[in-house]
Amino acid sequence: MTPVRDVCVIGLGLIGGSVLRAAAAAKRTAWGATTSESDAAAARAQGYDAGTDVAAALRRAAENDALVVLAVPLPVVDETLHLVAEHAPNALLTDVTSVKSPVLRAVRRWAPEARYVGGHPMAGTAQSGWDAGDAELFRDSPWVVEIEDDTDLVLWAEVAEFAISLGAHVVPLSASAHDEAVARISHLPHLLAAILATVGAEGGPVAMSLAAGSFRDGTRVAGSRPELVRAMTEGNREALLSVVDDALGRLGAARGSLASTGGLAKTIQAGHQGAQAFADHRAQDRVGVQLSLAAPDAREALRALGERGGRVTGISGDQATAESS
Ligand SMILES: NC(=O)c1ccc[n+]([C@@H]2O[C@H](COP(=O)([O-])OP(=O)(O)OC[C@H]3O[C@@H](n4cnc5c(N)ncnc54)[C@H](O)[C@@H]3O)[C@@H](O)[C@H]2O)c1
Ligand SMILES: O=C(O)C(=O)C[C@]1(C(=O)O)C=C[C@@H](O)C=C1
């Protein structure tokens, strides 16, 4: 039986604030700290155990062998890891950062004794700060829990179980597979939303007065806090460059075709199929499978499940209940 640990959340904005609320709702003893006086005060006003002394929150985590969840922006991950190394060096540590490879490197460098299993909930909104948080944010959402060749599966299972207890289903992936996928389905969309919003706004008051569903949906995430979008896109530079090239190639082909024959059929048909693939993936029947975390090839089996689009929905002892595509 995996122990139910206390939870210490560092960073109490949209995501950390949602983790703290959801952990408390799941009956965990949970506390948090943030450098934002206003986020901490808003959390306290709603009865949560929150403050601005990050070092003290981490010392309490060390005393209680709590799970530490880093929910801070990527640019302050290094400095937060220095505090982890000083105040809770052996902590069971996870994070929610939108890019995984730089965080993995930073943990290995700055907090090498931490028992780290990286994470990334694929849920959010364009809002920031404590007030934007929601205990139900992660319900029925994917939450990547990272598996590397040296990941301790007992710790992996504990972090996965935590994500599941907040309502998510777990997608096991390596940092590099995660970063390649989110470049396509999160970071490129954020970049394109920024460009769509810019081009639309350049149309002036007439364009703005006519803007309806397609503009609103295509540009929604352009309203996100610019620092967060910069951090995740610039932090995933290599993978994003590759999908930007892909997108530019397709845009160039569409332009060429529009200019020469006036036809956009190929581009629009391919896009329609892409949207259908997303809908089909969501609606597909999944096959239930059991995976033994004690099996010698468990890491490979879990990663293969994640790479096929499967997910872990429950953990009991050394058994993972999963759904495979
Ligand atoms: N916004 C999303 O949709 C989304 C989704 C999944 C993951 N993430 C990731 O979650 C993390 C947090 O994003 P967010 O959307 O909650 O941002 P946010 O701006 O809403 O919250 C960030 C919080 O961290 C605090 N903070 C900043 N510097 C700090 C420091 N040095 N020490 C302690 N606290 C500090 C801020 O005061 C704030 O409370 C980011 O790494 C982001 O990439 C975001
Ligand atoms: O729904 C939104 O507003 C989001 O931007 C959420 C979103 C995304 O889908 O790109 C943003 C960043 C993440 O790291 C994960 C999820």
Relative strand content = 15-25%
**Could you name the CATH homologous superfamily of the largest domain?**
NAD(P)-binding Rossmann-like Domain
The total count of strands amounts to 12
Give the count of helical stretches.
Answer: 13
Summarize the structure.
This protein has 13 helices and twelve strands. It is α/β, with parallel strands linked by helices and 325 residues long. It is an enzyme of class 1 (oxidoreductase).
Written description of the protein model:
- The protein is of the alpha/beta class.
- It has two domains: 7-173, Rossmann fold, CATH 3.40.50; 179-282, 6-phosphogluconate dehydrogenase C-terminal like domain (6-phosphogluconate dehydrogenase C-terminal fold, Orthogonal Bundle).
- The protein is built from 13 helices and twelve strands.
- A six-stranded parallel β-sheet has the order 3-2-1-4-5-6, sandwiched between helices. The protein has a three-stranded mixed β-sheet with strand order 7-8-9.
- Strand 8 (142-146), helix 6 and strand 9 form a beta-alpha-beta unit.
- Helix 3 crosses helix 4, helix 4 (77-87) runs parallel beside helix 5 and helix 7 packs across helix 11 (237-260).
- It is globular.
- The chain starts with 6 loop residues before the first strand and ends with a strand.
- The model has no long low-confidence stretch (mean pLDDT 97).
- Bound molecules: nicotinamide-adenine-dinucleotide and prephenic acid.
- Nicotinamide-adenine-dinucleotide is lined by residues 10-16, 34-36, 39, 54, 71-74, 76, 79-80, 96-98, 121, 124, 128-129, 225, 228, 232.
